[in-house]
Model the fold of this input.
Amino acid sequence: MGIRSFLSKPLAFWVVKKQQQWANNPVETQQKVFISLLNQAKHTCFGKDHQFESIQNHKEYIEYVPVRDYEGFKLYIERIKNGEKDILWPGLPLYFAKTSGTTSGIKYIPISKESIPFHINGARDALLNYIHNTGNASFLDKKMIFLSGSPEMEKKNGIYIGRLSGIVNHHVPKYLRSNQKPSYITNCIADWEEKLDQIIEETQSENMSLISGIPPWVQMYFDKIVERTGKKIKDVFPGFSLLVYGGVNFTPYKNKLFDSIGKKIDSIETYPASEGFIAFQDQTENNGLLLLLNSGIFYEFIPAEEFASAKPTRLTIGEVELGVNYALILSTNAGLFGYSIGDTIKFVSKSPYRIVVTGRVKHFISAFGEHVIGEEVENALKNVLKKYSDVSITEFTVAPQVNPSEGLPYHEWFIEFVNEPNNLTEFASDLDKEMTQLNIYYKDLIVGSILRPLVITVVKESGFIAGMKRMGKLGGQNKAPRLSNDRTFVDEMAF
Done:
């Protein structure tokens, strides 16, 4: 046993014990975060604009602080970018995490000196929970690869600007840096395909134990290694024992990833965002993610069907119910208040509070009033793949076809198969049946002959990669949306 793995076990015990203290007192923990945020930001421009000194409780907070997305903060952000202090949070942020927005173009999300430790500790604590629960810590003594964005940053008016994964890369603890791959120079390569080739050169002969990244980009890494060596990943990296992932639902990628690996290994799901580290899988046998209630974030939850209303219901942690789809609203110690992150979540446990991510507020199909969400298309595909055990996919997205050249409108599923079904028509029919069982509105439209059953368009091999490359969104944190309410994305992909 190496020194890293040896020392990790008492640290893991301590972290989990502290975690249990706040998890067992969720309402009190969140109330303390709420009061702390108001007190720290009350003398900022935003705090003065929204009467923070007068707010005594959540009811008053709702009255003074409306829910906003990035567009609602843009004027404040621009002032900070110009070097003004004390706008959203005391002083200037340490960083702006630069991220792509579907409606706002490039977004600049502030990260403060108070919030950056939680970005780092969220990932650390996910691994320590795994060590505590399984006793497995040997991966810390071997090489670990983090497929991330470039750590290069620019500095403007005293604020460093870069990708979140690149920013976090600068804060990897020193005791892990000697184990970390790829090298800094390789991580700075802008072109994703060139970068991936160089990552393989650096890692192919190493004793890799942990691999972390967004599933589609991990799969690209695996595919290139298999292509070069003719071997399964387990034979290239015999010590590979832990996969850490986040950013998208794992289920559609799971079968192909594990087939590429060639054996079952443990995996940990995380929920990091530029706005804060929100949750992680604290038990390998439980798919729910532990909501981090003591990480500088005050959470609100809006029932998804109310999100677009003028005065939606805004619930706190003690008011939520299991199985309800909520839009997730954050107030953070980097200066975002009543901020709609754009995700929808569902609680699967209240002791402790665990969630699953169900989709995006703006990623849905309701061209005919059906309001199909990401969770439904992912579950429909997962369920039908159980029947077709010989079929596997690489990637998929769904868009409505409102004006077909003939016949009724329909939902068009663009699927890139690894192994295509022998009978695509039968596969599509079964997939449509799953959709009618998961969404009653969709069923009514099919039964009422407003829509015809879904249509599958087969995407050629590497079609998603080629399309994302054409759009300039290959690699990093970019990912294809599960579904869209129009055809903008699929038209740009030009399958």
Remarks:
- The mean pLDDT is 91.
- DSSP finds 18 helices and 20 strands in the chain.
- The two ends are 50 Å apart (CA to CA).
